[in-house]
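Lab meeting prep.
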Amino acid sequence: MSRKSSANEANSWQETFVAALKEEELEGLFAVLDGQKTAHAGTPRQAVKLKAAKLIEGHYADSPALLYRTGVAFARSGNEGAQEIGLVLLAPLYDRNPPEVKEIVLALADSENWEVREWAASALRRIICADFEAVFPTIEELAGHESPNLRRAAAVASAWAAKDLTEDRCRRLLGILAALMEDDDPYVRKNMGAYAIGDSFLKAQPKLVAGWLGQVGANERAQWNVAMALSSAEAAKQFDLLIGVLRKLAADERTVVRRATYSAVSKLAKRLPGEIVPLVASWKTDSLRSHVYKRVWPKLKP
């Protein structure tokens, strides 16, 4: 598709959307969004949804109450693309009605649609940053919720918020998430160590998180998650803080932890060969860690 035809298509849906917006025809707005659905997620592309949100915000620029009402209508609709736009609209308006916005965000964080869950986690992140003390008990509750979707939302939203929070607040969130390091649900598990901790918390608060990783419980899954955190790209940047954690992992005798440790060492070696290769070589005669040498050394290129 040429740039010209692509621009014409964009202008076409926007014009139709604005016309329906002027008439405040919700079904008309939803129909325009349905026409922009992708096969990948069954909702419009991110750029379309964000543009639609801006058009709505512009239309109601002089009426926050109507903007809020529209956000609620979108979020409570059965239209998944509209729900995501509703989340974008409501997160900045959280203080207009905290209980209602929180209820909507948490309901959508448990959606059957994976993409809606992502947008809900993003909205929850913004709420955490906007009203930490009021929302903290909710995050604590979500971390122990029976729904893995909501436990995962607590982890991801907290991780995304970390870069905008103080060290003390990050420490409090990590205290809640410690239990999720032991969570065996696949959806929670794959989002914890490498993603929430390694990619986000470690980047935001390296010293705090390095110390926390060294103190995480001895549970097999928890230590697996520690190894996954060390597999992240951010771990290589903070390796001076994490070398003690890696040494501890390398001495673990459990198969699940060992496999994750081999993966972490291999990834670190690719990023920090000058530091990791000599370290692994030194483990050749280490009775506790020689298994790492035997497994990883043949794949290294000293």
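Slide two material, second protein:
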Amino acid sequence: MIYDSKPKFPARIYAGEKAKIVEFLSEFTPHPPMARNVANTVLSFAEESGCSRIISPETQILDEDGSKLFGIGSTDAARKELEQLEIEPLIHSMIPGISGVLLNEGKIRNLKVLVPIARKGNNISDARTAAHVIEMIDKLIHTINIDLEPLYNEAENVEKHLTSLRKQAAKPTDDHYGMYR
């Protein structure tokens, strides 16, 4: 991966000693057969490091307009934490990939895994969905405070631009033949 004319690893680990946070970040979705190995590596790291919980955010696409925020936890303690933060529980669904493995293995190993989920419809931009997910993470991690205003402002700008493009594309044209005249 190249960023700002420099090579950058597409998967990275960041740690904040003061906030007691470790972040695993990937710029790509690992090949599905790798999900179990990646999740087990994260779980082993968490166990060896004495981590109190794992947060693995997800997004899902809805067939309807709007957005909804949910959460799921691997243990009773994880579900209680989500409930205390008034994050609606996900009752029936499928959580694939790394987050799905983390949830099941967390249940087996009695590790607290929290999966905040933003479900988005067609009228919600990816930027706004990201802001919703980060807002939930901000609620879950009390040692940090994330200023979401710039992200929500950017989401609004993206949505205005997309609305403008949609209107432009939907305008009827007097030139019915276009380039075929």
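Talking points for slide two:
DSSP finds five helices and eight strands in the chain.
The mean pLDDT is 86.
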